[in-house]
Fold this sequence. Notes:
Distance between the termini: 39 Å
Number of helices: 10
Helix content: 25-40%
Number of strands: 9
Shape: globular
Structural class: alpha/beta
Bound molecules: adenosine monophosphate
Radius of gyration: 19 Å
Amino acid sequence: MPQVIDNPRELFAATEVWRGRGLRVGLVPTMGALHEGHMSLVAAVRAAGARPVVVSIFVNPLQFGKNEDLAKYPRTFAEDLARCDNHGVEVVYAPAPDAMYPVGFQSHVEVERVTAPFEGEARPTHFRGVTTVVTKLFNATGPCIAAFGRKDYQQWRTLDRMVRDLDMPVEMLGCPIARDEDGLAMSSRNRYLTASERTRAPAIFLGLRAASRAFARGERDRGELERLALAPIRAAFDVIDYAAVADADELTDPGPIAPEASVLLVAAWIGKTRLIDNCRLGSECL
Length: 286
Ligand code: AMP
C-alpha cells in the first residue's frame, strides 16, 4: 500500500530525504474519485523518470463556487488507495481541509488573462483556487515533475503559465485525454450521470470529432467548425455553456486556424451535471 501522509510538513520532510538521494520526485494532483485517466498521469510522470510518485487527493474547497458540487463531490478514499496501490504509487498525500487552509488563511496565487474566458466566465473564482492549491501542493511536495491532464485544458494552460511566470522549478507534463470506449472523456463527475444521461453524454466527443474531421479535410472557417461541433451536442445536452475555437496556447480568439495552433473547447450540461471536453485541431479526435 502507498504511504499515506496527511500534512505538508511531514510530506516535505519525506520528499527531502528522497531528493537528497538524487531521486526525481513526481506529483500528480487530484481531487480523488480516481479513474484510469488519473492513472495515465501516474504512468506519464513515471515514464518521465519520476520516483517516487506522489498522488495528492484533496477536494479543494477554494476552487468550487458557492452553488457548485463541493458537498456532493464523490469521495472514495479506500478505493482510491487500492487503485494507487495497483499502479505502484508510493505516496498518497491526503491533507484535511484545515491542514491546507488553517484559520487565518488569506494568501492566493492568481494568473490573469488565460483564466478570463470560458471556465473563468462560468466559474469566476475557480482558477484562483486551482493555482493556489497547486502552489501549496508544489511547496509541500517539492516535485521535479508534475503531470496534469489536457482534459482540463484551460487549467493546464493556466498552470503551465504560472510555473513559467513564477519560476517554479517543476517540469510540467500535459497529458492526453483518457476516454471510455464510446469517446466520453473519463471524469470523476461521470458518476453523477443517470443511465440515460450516460448514453447521451458521448455526444460531446461526437461533436469534437465531427469538427476535427472537417478540419482534417481542410475546413478552416471557425464558425463552421463550431457549428459542426454543436449539432450533436445540442441534440443530447440540455444547456451548452460554450463550444468555441480558441488559440491553443493563450485561449484568446484564434488567428488563422492552423494545425495544432487551435483548440475546440466545450462545456455543457446534461441534467444537473456539467461536463467539459476539448480537442486540439490537427491530430486529436479523428
Ligand atoms: P481532478 O481529480 O478532476 O481534479 O483531476 C486531476 C488531474 O487528472 C487533472 O490534471 C485532470 O486534468 C486529470 N484528468 C482528469 N480526467 C482525465 C482524463 N480523462 N484524461 C486525462 N487526464 C485527466
